[in-house]
């Protein structure tokens, strides 16, 4: 039963899309969430994730199988491609984080052509750049408007920090990353954050995530083991320790307390 990740480029350890990313699902399913919308990609489907966005994804086997290909288009590669091919670039209209790509008769054969080159899930140079160039040509021929996405090298502009943080606090990314995505230096981010929330970013994030956890455990009967990753914690032990420190009881004790309260009321 194949359970494989094939990729060209470097996968970010954070829930952050550092480079425009092409994903093709060979077998299985991929579920993605960008802070406001959910997406599901099934076998034979593909899409693009925009760079400088936050995404949480979950992979699921179908009939015991899970195979997918990721291709990352870094800025150095894209600038070299643009200089070589001189594509026509117009402003890309959609602001969606995840772009579902339409059916393209060339893509299935392209994906098959990649597999012989992989060694332990990676393609080594110089084949990696050759295959990336081939893929980008296929995508642009099918959708020329994607040039406005790929060849926009602008950095994030300054945006509403309060709105952004309240929408994205669950994502497991660094403070430096949050600062960059809101169009600020780290010092400006911390200064503006203190003005808006009257708290440091780290303390606010932990408290905000734990308050959401308290709600989910106390009113939705969810388990700590089911939610800690989705709330931006990397380890269940750290989540449980921080939870008890803030609320004076463990997630398990809160759950039992709520169940006892319900039985008593009945």
UniProtKB/TrEMBL annotation:
Q: Identify the residues that the record assigns to the HTH araC/xylS-type domain, covering every copy.
A: 159-257
Q: Which PROSITE patterns match?
A: HTH_ARAC_FAMILY_2
Keyword terms, alphabetized: DNA-binding, Transcription, Transcription regulation
InterPro entries, A to Z: ExsA-like_N, Homeodomain-like_sf, HTH_AraC
A single GO molecular function term of this UniProt record: sequence-specific DNA binding
Q: What is this protein called?
A: Helix-turn-helix transcriptional regulator
Record carries keyword DNA-binding: yes
Note the Pfam families from the entry. Answer: ExsA_N (PF22200), HTH_18 (PF12833)
């Amino acid at each position: 039963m194949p359970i494989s990740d094939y990729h060209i480029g470097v996968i970010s350890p954070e829930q952050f899309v550092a480079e425009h990313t092409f994903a093709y699902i060979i077998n299985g399913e991929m579920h993605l969430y960008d802070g406001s919308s959910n997406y599901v990609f099934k076998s034979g489907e593909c899409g693009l994730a925009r760079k400088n966005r936050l995404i949480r994804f979950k992979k699921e086997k179908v009939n015991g199988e899970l195979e997918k290909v990721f291709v990352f288009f870094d800025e150095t590669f894209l600038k070299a491609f643009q200089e070589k091919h001189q594509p026509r670039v117009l402003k890309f209209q959609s602001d969606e984080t995840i772009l579902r790509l339409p059916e393209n008769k060339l893509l299935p054969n392209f994906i098959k052509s990649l597999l012989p080159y992989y060694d332990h899930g990676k393609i080594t140079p110089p084949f990696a750049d050759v295959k990336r160039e081939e893929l980008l040509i296929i995508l642009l021929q099918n959708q020329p408007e994607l040039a406005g996405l790929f060849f926009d090298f602008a950095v994030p502009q300054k945006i509403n920090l309060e709105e952004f943080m309240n929408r994205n606090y669950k994502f497991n990314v660094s403070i430096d990353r949050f600062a960059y995505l809101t169009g600020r230096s780290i010092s400006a981010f911390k200064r503006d954050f203190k003005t808006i929330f009257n708290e440091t970013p780290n303390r606010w994030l932990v408290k905000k995530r734990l308050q959401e956890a308290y709600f989910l455990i106390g009113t939705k009967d969810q388990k700590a083991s089911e939610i800690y990753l989705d709330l931006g914690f990397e380890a269940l032990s750290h989540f449980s320790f921080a939870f008890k420190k803030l609320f004076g009881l463990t997630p398990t004790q809160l759950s039992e307390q709520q169940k006892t309260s319900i039985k008593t009321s009945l």
